[in-house]
Please model this.
Amino acid sequence: MNRRILLCLYFFPPLGGPRSLRWLNLVKVLSERGWTIDVLTVKPSLHDSFYDAGLLKELPPGIRVYRSFPGFYYSLLHSRKRRALGFPKTTLEWLPFGILKGAQLAGSRKYDILISSALPFVGHLVGYFLKRRMRIPWVVDYGDPLSFNPTPSSIKRLVGRWFERRILRRADGLIAAAEGMREDFLAHFPFLRGISTRAIPSGIPGEIDHVQAADFGDRFVITYAGSFYKGTREPYQFFRALQALIRDGEVRSRLSVLIAGSVEPAYLEAARKLHIQDSVQFLGRISFQEVMSILKGSSVILYIGSHWSHRHFQYKIFEYAASGRPIIAIRQADTDLSAAFIEEKNLGRVVSNDPENIARAVAELFDLWKTRSLDRSFAPLDKDMYTWGRRGKEVEDFINPFVRH
Model:
């Protein structure tokens, strides 16, 4: 039985990012389970900070990827050899080109189901117009909401809510990355109770087991992998804690902090002003394999929760836990799904976003490391419970009822 999916999303290999890695792993599983998958996405620039050519090697055989022009401003922004930093602000430009390419595919191929993924939200906007043309079941997959994703602009919230309501009224099913987010969708849009919804988190890539851990010698290494976001998830309190810690000569001589990911200049300047730049190394955006090698070789991994973590489970937590290293989790929201998971599974220490508490927790972990009792103090994750194979089966179970046989 040939079942065909059209998957519509902005981020897909060779672009990295949570959405890209999620669907790269899901299409591997779905392909193995007999699904034919076509992907509609952007044609990225080699200078895009999310570009990772190595991801292309992981695409399974038989997956066809159709790329369309990402937009004029995007092309201008990434025409330079120096990569632009941060999350792109140009994604909406893709809308007309994505619709046009999708319409061409719809005219030449028959699909059983349409799936779109966000953020960025343009993936759902393209899906909305293709749903109207193709008249097949449409499932929306969310890593983050749009209308109740905190933003200082009331206009953006109102416009976002209007767009999201229109989108969701057309959708036949909704997948959320966490149960808390799914419940929030039902609370904000009660009409969703009339369609199928399910929480399907991300999983653990199997290749993690084959990555060689980096060797940092006799160094206590704390690694943060990911991005910072202004007003939501920022490192300032951790930096202040680090400033206090390195007043101890032994800590200063043995402690290194690695930050892997694109970082805005403001955070580099903050490290300089606090005189911690000798202890912090900003690695920039590096490949997934390099990130995993560093995580596996680190002493401790740093997680910084956002102000709205009650509805969002960070994809990277599974990678952190799968590395086998303890996690120090900085919680900012009263309810933080990722921090709660770390506490429940005894994967590390959870502290409030206060320099004194952070410094105390890091000092405790440093002492455990010195006495070679760090690993014995925390539990390893049962990785078999969080594989992409399981997640792919959950997606298949969810979409099967929509598919016409």
Notes: Residues 154-170 form the longest helix (17 residues). The CA atoms of residues 142 and 285 lie 24 Å apart.
